[in-house]
């Protein structure tokens, strides 16, 4: 069989939107930073372990520096003393970035309705996905990652999100 005249790309013109290509790359390579403070962090560890294996969904490269992460997973109770630290971590993350509030405590303060506990992290940082449960199952975290990936497909590549968000710790 003579393949000398066969050129696969000579006659093919591939055109696509740059957003689709960039978002495809982002979708398959989320780099989470875990702000784990309580039992939800143990559930995140189970999700990253071999049984649930979050790496199948493109989120296995855990980052321990906010400057290298694009997905902030807040897992557990956040006190008012921890709030400025969480805000600083969020501010240090490069755009685009996404936030997941994992569990009842991160979402609403949980059953800690007192003066020391932040009643939901959306008071200081914008949240993209909330995960219910106390603690939520690993499948719920995987579903949140898949939800972030679905949102990624619809975003513009070079836009800045949450520019109108003002939290309690933002300068007015």
Automatic annotation (TrEMBL):
Q: How does it sit in the membrane?
A: Peripheral membrane protein
What is an annotated GO biological process for this record, any one? aerobic respiration
Locate the transmembrane regions by residue number.
Answer: none
Residues recorded as binding [4Fe-4S] cluster, renumbered to this chain, are: 39-40, 105, 134
Question: What InterPro entries would the database entry show?
Answer: NADH_UbQ_OxRdtase-like_20kDa, NADH_UQ_OxRdtase_20Kd_su
Q: How is the cofactor bound?
A: Binds 1 [4Fe-4S] cluster.
Q: Where is the NADH:ubiquinone oxidoreductase-like 20kDa subunit domain?
A: 39-147
- Tell me what reaction this enzyme catalyses: a quinone + NADH + 5 H(+)(in) = a quinol + NAD(+) + 4 H(+)(out)
A GO molecular-function descriptor: quinone binding
Family membership, please give it: Belongs to the complex I 20 kDa subunit family.
Protein name, as recorded: NADH-quinone oxidoreductase subunit B
